[in-house]
Give the backbone structure.
Amino acid sequence: MANRMNRRMFLGGLGAAAAVQTANTATAASAGSTEKVLIVGVSCSPRKGKTTSTAVQEALKAAQQVDPRIEGTLLDLGGMKISGWGAETEDDFATILPVLKDERLGGLIIGSPSYFRSMSALCKAFLERCAVLRKPKLLLADKPVGVVAVGAYRNGGQELVIEQILTAMLCHEVMCVGGKPSAHQGATLWNAYNDDITKDEFGMDTARKVGIRVAEAALRLAAIKS
C-alpha cells in the first residue's frame, strides 16, 4: 500500500512539474513574441457613435493598455443594413466580414443596447449572420468573447442582454468571459446622462474590466498557439 502511494505521489509530482513547465514555456513564448493580437469590438446599436459605441471603445482602450501587442478595432454597425440569417438581399455584412476573418483575431467584445430587456434587432441580425464563421471550420473557436450592455435604467436588462449574446456565441465554441470583480458577467452601463455615458463611472469601469479580461485571455491563447 505504501509503495502504491509513493508511486502515485511520484507520478503526480511529475504531472505537476510538467504542467508548470508547460505554463512557463507558454508564458515565455508570449513574452518574447511581437506578433499583434487583434481584439475586435462590435457596437450593435442602430445609433452610430452613441453610448454603446463609446462603451465598447472604452473596453478596447483598456484592452490595448494590457500589452503593446494588443491591437483594437471598432466595428460600429450604426447606420448599416444587416439582415438576419437567410436574407437573400445584399447588405453591409460583407464589408465587415474580412475583419472577423482576420487571422490575427484574438477575441471579441460585443456591445448592444438593451431594448425591452433584450439585445437590439441589429445585434440579433449580426449574430445570426456570424453563422458563416462556423463552416467549413469554427473560426472563432476558443477565442474569448466579452459583452458590453447599455440600458436606460441601472437594472434595465443589461445582464439579460449579456446572457443572450454569450449564449449565441457558444455555438461557435468560444471562451465566454466576464470582467474583473464588479463586472463578473460583463459590462453593465446606465445611460442616465443624456447620452453622455462617460458620466456613468461605475459602468465605464465595468467596460474597462471586460476589455482587460478579454485581452488577458487572448494573450494566453496566443501563447499556447506559439
Summary: The chain has two domains: 1-32, 35-225.
